[in-house]
Each structure stands twice: as C-alpha cells, then as structure tokens.
Amino acid sequence: MNKNINITEEKKSLRESMRAKRKNLSQRERESLSGKITANLSREPFFQTKETTLLYASTPEEVQLYDLMKFMLSMGRKIAIPFIPERGKMLAVELLSVADLTEDKFGILTVREDKRKVVAPENLGLLIVPGVAFAKDGRRLGMGGGYYDRFLSENRPPAPRAALAFDFQITDDIPIEDNDEKVDYIITESRSISATERS
C-alpha cells in the first residue's frame, strides 16, 4: 500500500510541475512550437495511414492540434476524437468538421450529439495520445483520470500510439503502475523518439 501511495504522490508532483511549465509558455511560443511538432509528425511514415486517426481537442496549455485537424480534413483524412458517455468510459467518435466540436457535460470538447458516430477501435490506424510527461521508453503520465489507459487496455487497437509533446515534457523517469499504458513514438519540436526500439 505504501508503494502505491508513494507512486501516486510522485505522479501528482510531476504532473503539477509539467503543467506549470506548459502554462508558462506564451501563446506565441505555444503556437510556434505546436507548428513545429505537428510538422514533424506529418513527416513520419506511421502518420501516412489511410485509416482513421484518433486525435483530441487540445486544451489551451497543450500542443495545439486544431490546425492539424483542419489540414487533415481538407486532405480527406479521417479523424476521430474521444467522447466520454459516462464517467470512466471513453469512445472514439468520427469528426467531420472542427465546427462540429462542442463542450460535453464534463467540460471536454467532443463531437456534437447529432453528428456523433462511434468508430470501432480496430478501425483506427493511428492514435495520438495526450499526456503531461513522457519517458524515452514510452512511459506516459496522463492527467490522472485513466481514460486512455482503460481505452487502450480494454480495446487493444492494433494501431501505433504517438504522443506530441514539448521538449521539456520528456523526462528520464516516470513512476508507473501496472495499468499504465505506453506509447510507441514521441514527437517534439526538435526530435522524434521511437520507444519501440527500447521495448
């Protein structure tokens, strides 16, 4: 029990530290770095999938994904984003237009109800997974809700998992528990890390 308590406290401390660093970025810095990160993503071979890509509606402090969404949709690429039907459960739903985004009962942007169509996990060709910190071996620290960990572990979509992060979000060590899911790739403004090579 003490070990679990220690891990929980370590996660909380690291989460707070990384979120503070993200918030300290100016809007101009965040937009510039986000552009570099998404440009680096677009050059990766795994990004060229013809299947649906799972993205997420980024919060103001995260790597910004809205320009990437618009670009992908203009190119005819298929996109899905998370939908939370109830606390603790996450689904992937198709996104046809950024204009279809609306705030749900949990305060998260998702597809509005009349446009909502569930995408089966096995039909996802790439998963872009959020997080507040990452290690080079693919370990990921999320926001603490466990939604992505449950979605990934319960559904086991065969697609590669990639994280988009600012350079300072890469750390040498992240405390993990048995139910924490890893990512395969981490893309920052200056580098692409393949965690699969370290598995």
Shape call: globular
**Helices and strands, in N-to-C order?**
HHEHEEEEEEEHEEE
Q: What's the story with the biggest beta sheet?
A: 7 strands, mixed
Across the major sheet, the strand order is 3-2-1-6-9-10-11
How many distinct beta strands?
11
What is the name of the CATH architecture?
3-Layer(aba) Sandwich
CATH structural fold name: Rossmann fold
The CATH homologous superfamily is named: NagB/RpiA/CoA transferase-like
Q: What are the low-pLDDT stretches, counting only 5+ consecutive residues below 50?
A: none
**On the 0-100 scale, what is the average pLDDT?**
93
How far is the N terminus from the C terminus? 28 Å
- Fraction in beta strands: 15-25%
Whole-number radius of gyration? 16 Å
Total helical elements: 4
**Helix/strand/pairing category:** alpha/beta
Number of domain units: 1
Helix content: 25-40%
Indicate the CATH class. Alpha Beta
Structural commentary:
The strands form 3 sheets. The chain has a 7-stranded mixed β-sheet with strand order 3-2-1-6-9-10-11. A two-stranded antiparallel sheet has the order 4-5. The protein has helices at 2-23, 27-42, 66-74, 147-155; strands at residues 52-54, 79-86, 89-95, 101-103, 109-111, 124-128, 133-134, 140-141, 161-164, 185-187, 192-194. The model has no long low-confidence stretch (mean pLDDT 93). The radius of gyration is 16 Å and the shape is globular. The chain contains 4 helices and 11 strands, in the order H-H-E-H-E-E-E-E-E-E-E-H-E-E-E. Strand 7 and strand 8 form a beta hairpin. It has one domain: 3-Layer(aba) Sandwich (Rossmann fold), CATH 3.40.50. It has 199 residues and is an alpha/beta fold. The relative contact order is 0.18.
